Amino acid sequence: MKILVIGGGGREHAIVQKLKESKQETEIFVAPGNGGIGQIAKCINIKETNIDEMVNFAVNNNIDLVIVTPDDPLVIGMVDALESKGIKAFGPRSVAAVLEGSKSYAKAFMKRHNIPTARYKDFTSYYEAKEYLKQQTKYPLVIKADGLAFGKGVIIAQDKTTALETIKNIMLDRCFGKSGSKIIIEEFLEGIEISVMAITDGKIIRTLTSAMDHKRIYDNDLGPNTGGMGAIAPHPLYTKSLAKECNEKIFKPTIKGMLKEDRLFKGILYFGIMLTINGPYVIEYNCRFGDPETQVVLPLLDNDLLELILAVCDGKLAKVEVKQKAGSTACVIMASGGYPITYQKGYPIHGLEQAKTIPDLTIYHAGTIFDKDMSQFLTSGGRVLGVTAYATTLNDAIKKAYQGVKVISFKDGVYRSDIGRKTGVTNEHI
Ligand code: AMP
Ligand code: GLY
């Protein structure tokens, strides 16, 4: 089977690695891929949002299945374009990807279907938003650009001055471009965040192992938001009874609601959940695999991923059970110094061979290229590597991941030293 995976981060490396374990014989292409992915699949130099070129490549190379992973190509309709040429594609069509592509759609959808989420208002007029903010007394408030904004479109405003400045930046100065033509202002939810990804053919939904992301750059959740500095799975607070509650109040109503609104959702549906004292609330939907959650969730999946994906494409998920391995995983992201703001690229990465000798340790590449002349990997992005370990207990998985991190180095490299050890969450659970 000839497979094309769209994307080029650590998440895609984990997906390709898992596909390689399939019992079906596969030939895997990845566009654009990265240095690490290039060691196990063929990287194709096509931009992930270039629909025309991607469809042409798939047609000309007799690709049997395309897995569209990142948000942008999904939201702009890459699955629709592939399917219109008769190519099997994994991921939601654009009418369903709107759950991530438009936060105001997602919020109104949750309201219509009684799915717990923070109270909110949306605005297309800067002046109305400004008047609304002037009347608010309870801070922090959360301000969100409606459309995709490279994961940066959510601002938690601690006071009125910041809030007013934020809406000006988004709506008047258009710091996120068109995505800022509409904004959402919502109540701040206090609690613990849990990521749950589910695979669905639009009718049946099956969850994968829960996970915990670490979004801020510095230890103790300080500093600016990033694409994710590490993850663990399963999430220590995601108990069986909470899973049941989420299933009844969130997962099933979402799938049913989408079906009812003629927006059948097939692919991976990611639920960003805030566990509050009043129970679980949805903070966000993503229409795809999360990053870096995928790097910790897929190693715990005890299924042939390709078989699951094909079951979704054929609308036959009812016939397949999702099985999870026992044990835990931890992923520590090694990033370029200065990320997520400005950073240098092109530094040699040392110690990868030594790290490979540590059992149950996998290094997923995110921002790397392989320099053929020098025969070594160089840094090429903000997030460089996801050092991921598996162990029977979470504590051992964390220890082992850091053992890997300690032997790898590149100039100005940074990482968080508290992955999986958030105060109030894991300390008392491991
Ligand atoms: P997102 O870009 O939608 O993933 O949101 C980024 C982060 O903002 C989330 O992971 C939360 O930490 C935070 N966040 C978003 N909405 C809320 C909210 N209503 N209350 C508290 N935190 C929030
Ligand atoms: N880890 C959150 C995301 O993938 O958006």
Structural overview:
Helix content is 30%, strand content 27%. The chain is of the alpha+beta class and 430 residues long. It folds into four domains: 2-91, Rossmann fold (3-Layer(aba) Sandwich); 125-181, Dna Ligase, domain 1 (2-Layer Sandwich); 192-319, 2-Layer Sandwich (D-amino Acid Aminotransferase, Chain A, domain 1), CATH 3.30.470.20; 328-423, Phosphoribosylglycinamide synthetase, C-terminal domain (Glycinamide Ribonucleotide Synthetase, Chain A, domain 4), CATH 3.90.600. Strands 12, 15, 18, 19, 22 and 23 form a six-stranded antiparallel β-sheet that branches. Strands 3-2-1-4-5 form a five-stranded parallel β-sheet, with helices on both faces. Helix 1 links the parallel strand 1 and strand 2 (27-32). It is globular, with a radius of gyration of 21 Å. The model has no long low-confidence stretch (mean pLDDT 95). The structure holds adenosine monophosphate (AMP) and glycine. The site of adenosine monophosphate has 12 residues, from strand 17.
